[in-house]
Amino acid sequence: MADDTTTRTTDGAADRSLLRMVLVLGAFVAVGPLTIDMYLPALPTIAAELQTTEAAVQLTLTGTLVGLALGQLLIGPLSDAVGRRVPLLAGTALHIVSSLLIVLAPDIVTLGVLRVLQGVGTAAGAVVALAVVRDLFTGRAAATMLSRLFLVMGAAPVLAPTIGGELLRFTSWRGVFVALAVYGVALLVLGSMALQETLPPERRRSSRPLATLRTYRGLLSDRSYVGLVLVAGLSMAALFSYVAGSSFVYQGEFGLDEQQFGLLFGAGAFWLIAATQLNPVALWWFSPAQLLLAGVVAGTVAGGVLLLLALTGAGGLVGVVVPLWAVLFAAGLALPNAPALALTRHGEAAGSAAAVLGAVQFGVGALVSPLVGLLGNDAAAMGAVIVTALTIALVVLLVVVRPWRLDTGAGDAQEAALAAAH
């Protein structure tokens, strides 16, 4: 076990290697938020061009989340069996092909089906990145690493709607998917050249269906793991309700244009990033379990304030934006710590454990996204979904997980970091 002196070692080569890994993994993780968010400013335009309803267009977002959920359940066990690189690169190739096919989509049904396929390809980056982190890190080190990934990943939701809005100045919504295909090609080249295999052959598992089912059964029999996965999923649901409803709230309810929406959406994501980067600093004084509890409690309170202000109309746009930013800040504390605690429990099946985690996160997001539209696509609907999701998350955390009983693996931070550098 590394002592405190070791944990503060700052070997230059190790730091550069660690930074390179964060950037490469972050680039792959970012393809998810980019795929989800870049076309958000165009949702009203897509509804008009394809002669369909706003709710139907929102279902294309749901389709992407369904693809992300199902794709992770398939890719996670595959990555435990054959290693991390091959599934990652194959999924990226699928993302490229589906993005190009979307450019030609003639109607909303075709668009929805292709978005599911695009989500499956996107799932590779999400699940393999988490599995790589678990291959190399545990406990506080995993939470710290995930926070660094969220810094890179956080730039995606900040920039994606803004990039999408700017692209719409020069092209149609179809051009957004051309840009996603180009990004996918860049990832394919980057992954082929820069990402090393982190799962040696002796640690790989059987890819047979029965063996996969036994692995999943073992994961689902762990009460704390299941509870942490649910908390992570419900926290992500609060985030996705904001993603699904924000374009209609900001543009429809408050009259912002596509570019203004992109800027305001990016400003909100700043608070998510700020919290994820506060998290590694806070981990010197608090455990991941304590920070997770703080994030869920704060998010629940902020969601309640948002709902109250939205129902009364108090504060107008400011009355919606400020509590939303507080929700995003709270999510930035919860989102790195819940996965870190969950994955630490099952390093022997990191790909499958990450797959269940990701499938629940995006699966719950897929279920939640249409609710905002069905409830009215306004700030009150968004607030109601957020506060409900986070209230349930808080109950699960306290009753099922019982965070005061979790072992956070405090002593291995730099030992894992040094292992990752070699």
- Give the uncertain stretches in residue-range form: 1-10, 408-422
- Tell me the structural class: mainly alpha
- CATH topology, anyone? Growth Hormone, Chain: A
The DSSP helix count reads 16
Rg calc:
20 Å
The CATH architecture would be Up-down Bundle
Mean pLDDT: 80
What's the helical proportion of residues? Answer: over 70%
Subcellular location: Cell membrane
InterPro entries: Efflux_drug-R_Bcr/CmlA, MFS, MFS_dom, MFS_trans_sf, Sugar_transporter_CS
Protein name: Multidrug effflux MFS transporter
Keywords: Cell membrane, Membrane, Transmembrane, Transmembrane helix, Transport
Q: What would you say this structure looks like, in words?
A:
With 422 residues, the chain is mostly helical. It has one domain: Growth Hormone, Chain: A (Up-down Bundle). It has helices at 4-7, 12-37, 43-49, 54-82, 85-102, 108-136, 139-170, 173-194, 209-220, 223-253, 258-282, 288-312, 316-344, 350-374, 379-401, 413-420. The longest helix is centred in the middle third of the chain and has 32 residues, at 139-170. Residues 1-10 and 408-422 have low confidence and may be disordered.
